[in-house]
Amino acid sequence: MQAAAFDEFGGPEVITLRILPVPEIADDEVLIKVWSAGVGVWDAYERQGVLVPEGAAFPIVPGSDGAGSVAAVGSQVTDLAVGDVVYVAATTRPKGGFYAEYAAAKAEYVAKLPDGVPVEHAGAMPTDAVTALAGLDTLGLAAGAWLLIFGASGGQGHLAVQLAKRQGLNVIAVASGADGVALVTRLGADVSLDGHGDPGQVLARIREAAPGGVDGILAMAGGKTLDRLTETLSDGGVVAYAHGVQPEPQERPGVSVRAYDGAASPQQLQRLNELIEVAPFQVHVAEIFPLGKVVEAHRRLETSYPGKLLLTIR
């Protein structure tokens, strides 16, 4: 099979195309004919040697997110069949990732693609969607509560906007630039604000929308702007931030801070699918690259863009 892989850690240029064997699957695994693969910052960390899956050995095929069709199933797999269209969030993948024509994954990380998700963009969804749901679970807000999402136009943020609305939350989305504001508005945010705008005006708009204070903040980024936004929390409010956010938000009187991370499991993937199926679900792809342009895709990771980046394999 054709795959993009690297034999040493380093910059984008270490990833090259080569021909590798199709991975063999174990009894509890599924072989995926990959149609598309998400390109995320965690792939760059893997390429740099920071986040390398346990058991991985050179040549390493990166790619934590993928979608495609089931090509083969192990003898213990009963809920998936050859031909099923699926998406995969595979945090453990010693046999390689989704920057390849085929990938092996534990069946517990594989879910059938629900109605409402465009199949051509599904590969960019899994990790960010699972992580966004984990963030909402960490906050545990009841329907009708006010949620502020900081970094709302990013890969995780724009999916969190949609999942939060499906849970009955009122969403204030702080996005990046005019394009980001337009995106989160289109996705159903009740209030859409540009985080690059005047901080005083941003705070005033939030207080106008939620005069009693917001009940929780879901943070995909840190810094001075986030520190200012915590001033809008009601007493007893919670800030949930994704692991890796720097600087980490700090607790203060009346405000608690909780870190979260996404973990795929059959139960969590089922919950995610149930929420997705409520209404059309958009995975916003800023740019699509063929597998042969993987180096350019990783260079694009270092720039600013709304939503996600995607590799097409087939």
TrEMBL record:
Residues 10-311 form the Enoyl reductase (ER) domain. Pfam families: ADH_N, ADH_zinc_N. Gene3D superfamilies: Medium-chain alcohol dehydrogenases, catalytic domain (3.90.180.10), NAD(P)-binding Rossmann-like Domain (3.40.50.720). Keywords: NADP. CDD domains: MDR_like_2. The keyword NADP applies. It comes from the Bacteria. One of its GO terms (molecular function) is oxidoreductase activity. PANTHER family: QUINONE OXIDOREDUCTASE. This is NADP-dependent oxidoreductase. The lineage of its organism: Bacteria, Bacillati, Actinomycetota, Actinomycetes, Micromonosporales.
